[in-house]
Amino acid sequence: MKLILPMSRHRMERVVCALLVAVVGAATLAAEAPNFEQHVSPIFKQHCVACHNPDDAEAGLDLSTAQAALAGSSGGDVVKAGLPDSSPLVLTMTHHEDYPEMPPNKPMLAAKEIKVVQDWIAGGLLASAGGQSQLREMTFEIAAGSSQRPEQVAFPVGWPVPASPQPNAGKIASPAIAMAASPWANLIAVSGHRSVSLYGDKDSDGGAKLIGSLDFPEGDVQDLRFSANGQLLLVAGGIAAKTGKVAIFDVATGKRVATLGEEYDAVLSADISADHRYVALGTTSKLVKIYAAESGELLHRIKKHTDWVSVVRFSPDGQQLASGDRNGGVFVWEAESGGIVYSLDEHKQKVTALSWRPDGAVLASAGEDGTFVLWDMKDGWATRAVKAHVEKALTRYSRRTGVLDITFAADGTLLTIGRDRWLRSWKVDGQPLKKLAALEGLPLRLGYVSAANRIVVGDFDGQLTWYDHQ
């Protein structure tokens, strides 16, 4: 249930559209995934098997049976369950510039035929109707992801509230460039002009109740993060091409307890480990920096990214650190040593957000390519790549593709917002769950408030909107 904003005629039309899309989507989900025997084999027999069969397996590839196709070629796997867009077989069929064109010296296969193969891969590489899926199990137990609630939940007491008149209900003074939700309190932090405002439950007008604000004179706020126990709030930012800092505040008192970093550009992202030992920074210098939170000592200066480090996030236990960059790269590091754990290559454009599942077993990455990827942290395997917010541009200069933020809810479901102006939810395994809301403004940040089981969306127009998570 939405808690603020009157419903305009335009919005009513979008909501009706959302309901119609949801009905159609449900019917699509009900359809069975393509299988090799009935759907894929006829395509391969027509276009591929003449050169890729048991007797004449060019490049060591046999496409005559599902088992043979899964065995791959002399160069390795040609299909990756759940990952059609990065499967070499699809890349050759779509004439990707880095792969040989298949079939050779012939036109590309019809789009509907390629889609059958893509859907077969995305659906788990079924050999036959009712066959066993090759997709990994993506189960989640809520108890496994529940960290211990602190004895006393941190909540602002006696914070200064700006004396100037407050904007309309649910409205903040500037775009919601950064936003964070407390893991335990009914509390969100939102960036402002060289400041941070904290909002609690709805006020008498149905909007956001302003609890207090903090000054960040170092510059514009780029990222906000609560510590795992909710006692600390990190503020990262600075002045472009001049300086960058990370400030740490005590949530209860509003006092600044530490200032870290000495950057020559604004800090793009920051996070603090669960035990408060480490603070990580993402920078425009392509570096990930890890500091000792207490002493401020720079412990690790990690140079692996090829572009600006857009986001850094510690795992729930604080043992690992994930980082993403503007070129689509994602890496996982050991927090203590700074050593690399995984190099995760799936996104083709900027990584906009990272979120760890509450149990730490899965990392979700989101990108401007419109997809989110679920990574199994046992071995760094991409279990799903989901085209979550991909829509054709309305005009030459408009852009409707891109996942702008992603977060896990307490029950393991995923929440996303995108350039297509939709708020969506997804099952634990990445399958679509609901189109929750059609958004009027361009959404920038997404928060899940576990204490109230609600979702908060902040947009470019400075609007904060609350939704019940169902």
UniProtKB/TrEMBL annotation:
One Pfam family it belongs to: PSCyt1
Residues making up the signal peptide according to the UniProt record: 1-33
WD repeat copies, ranges: 302-343, 344-385
Keyword Lyase attached: no
Keyword Transcription: no
Residues annotated as domain Cytochrome c: 27-125
TM region(s), chain numbering: none
Swiss-Prot/TrEMBL keywords: Heme, Iron, Metal-binding, Repeat, Signal, WD repeat
A GO term, aspect molecular function: electron transfer activity
Protein name (record): WD domain, G-beta repeat
